[in-house]
Amino acid sequence: MKTFTPSLLLRLLALLLLTLFLVGNLQAADKPSQTTADHSKFKVLQGEFKTAPEVTEACLSCHTEAASQVKKTTHWTWLYDHEETGQQLGKSKVMNSFCGMVVTNEPRCTSCHIGYGWKDMNQPPPEADSAVDCLVCHDTTGGYKKFPVLSGLPTEIPREWPKGSGKMVLPPDLTEIAQHVGASNRATCGSCHFYGGGGDGVKHGDLDSSLHNPKASLDVHMAADGLNFSCSECHSTWGHDVAGSRYQVNAKDTQGVVNPGHGKVKAASCESCHNNDPHPQAKLNQHSEKIACQSCHIPEYARGGVATKMWWDWSTAGRLTEEGKQINQKDEQGRLVYSSQKGDFGYGENVVPTYAWFNGTVEYTQIEDEFDVSKPPLGVNRIQGSAGDPDSRIWPFKVMRGKQPYDTKHNTLLATHVFGADDTSFWKNFDWHKALQEASDKTGFAFSGEYDFIETTMHWPITHMVPSADQALECAACHSADSRLAGLPGIYMPGHDSNVWLDRLGWLAVFLTLAGVVVHRVALSISKRINQA
Amino acid sequence: MNQESTSQEMIFKRFERFWHWSQALLIFTLIGTGFEIHGSYSLLSFATAVEVHTFAAWALIVLWVFAIFWHLTTGEWKHYLPTSKGLFAVAYYYAVGAFKGEDHPYKKTTNAKHNPLQRLAYLGFKLLISPVIWVSGMLYLFYSDWPAALADVLSLQSVAYVHTAAAFAMMVFIIGHVYMTTLGKTVFSHIKPMITGYEEPEKQESQAKDS
User: Fold this and answer.
1) B156 at the A interface (CB within 8 A)?
2) What pTM, to 2 d.p., does this model score?
3) Across the A/B interface, how many CB contacts are shorter than 8 Å?
4) How far apart are CA A265 and CA B158, in angstroms?
5) Domains (ranges, CATH) in chain B?
6) Rounded to a whole number, what is the distance in Å from the CA of B100 to chain A's nearest CA?
């Protein structure tokens, strides 16, 4: 029999501690979950699912109203009737300065529609309730993927993607996924919203895959080891309707904290949790009258190590090698800076936002709108607001720039048919005329046959990637000679603004007084000596 | 000497001296932080400068409230009544007489402790520079709380310009004021009574020179 040596005792002690630790962890894991339903126990979810719409049907057998709720939302309709401007916006209608328009490029673009099989933007989304995609928002396994070119459906067979890469995308395990559905989370929302514009972080600048598991220094609310908010914590939902809009932003929330029981809870503003006077210093609270919280509390965007696209020049697209092959040039960081399909790209990381007065209303240059070509750049979208408007505040923006095709006779933007395995799509044929003509024919938007490229801008409000408060901007970021708000109309910023003549005269007066004093003193000493002599 | 001093009447009362020196300290603080806020240089950081400036401003206002009360209740306000009598003589002394070795034409008394030129300068300080700084400063501080009627006719920019102009005027006053205090028999002979409260005895010239 072994005797208890000190080293054995030590080992026993270590074992005991380890056991205690493991038991402690198990107990933590055994904490009752918030939900009252274990979906793996539902009979209807225990069968084999061949297609994703079959899963939807199973969901709807219990959640009877879910499909009709979803179909009322912008996530489904891709339509937005703007109450302020009267414009009809939404993904199915607007042009952007990235890939242009959805129309004629459906199977690619509608891979981010919250449904299955929307193949024609001229038609409303598919009518069947089973065409609603429950899993894209409610998957908790991370295994569900809408295939990029199948109008929103996941693939049912192994497929290569990207084409020619040799990487295979396998069909998702629908049964496993269906049995583990739950509330939406950063990954589900992010599966579309982090990748807008055709890639990670391309579009927004404040939304990219770095927000899957961010540190508090990147996003204090979503910090994985902190508050760990899901998107819906702020973008609260009511019958599948999600709060928050980029077309009509709640730019100045005067309602303050929203308490449950006070009607429809619509959060999605800083004030709805933090109220209008969250600072201990009165002067800072007074700033919130004219300055959006985001302006000071998001010092830079694209801070998570994912670059965002800042420049997209379509005018250079279509250049091929002498052998007629596509060109893909990358910079030293491995980012695509030129591609024959898309033209020239510019990127930004840790970008200081552009600041502007904003009352929340965003107006679009729609495809049928004639515009003044003599004053580029053309605002594909235009933000409204001014210093004198009490509903406006100074907001941070990502300003996307680039060049896009327009009709030189009609002075309108042009829809571009870029995607498709046909003989007109730009990405296959590299012929602008064919691509523009096809888009015009399919959509009915006029094309005179003459086109050129015009420089465009787009404003994207920056509101995510709020770090912990100690990273907020110092006063001198604005109150200094090289102020971030330099040139913004309608404000007098101590430390930045002054009247140059008042300063010159003031210092001159001070200098002359000092000089007078010195002269008087010197003269006095000299005269004293003379008088004594 | 001590005995002789106590036998004299006190010219600058204890409160008056406290008021003067704490006001001086506060004004120097306000000028230092104020021009940092103005953007003339960077020393403490904008945030700290604003904090200190605001605190010092409130302290000075409280001090002024006490000082006004003191002036009114003690009748000391009379020392600032302007007079033309002897004004020219004093001005002439600083411009010409002092260079000829003439004596200062004015003799301080407890009934009239400031010469006519001083009266005028201090009255300007109290009735012009200070109120302008005070009012523009309060408007500046409470900019966010302006009633609509005020916001319609006044801009922060104009308030800031007035406040800055008054600050320059204050600096000009201080330079002149400090310099004038050094023009006594010795450099410190005018400053000493502001500290001790007592004027050097006029007749004890030999002693004054010794000290």
Assistant:
1) yes
2) 0.87
3) 85
4) 43
5) 2-210 (1.20.950.20)
6) 7
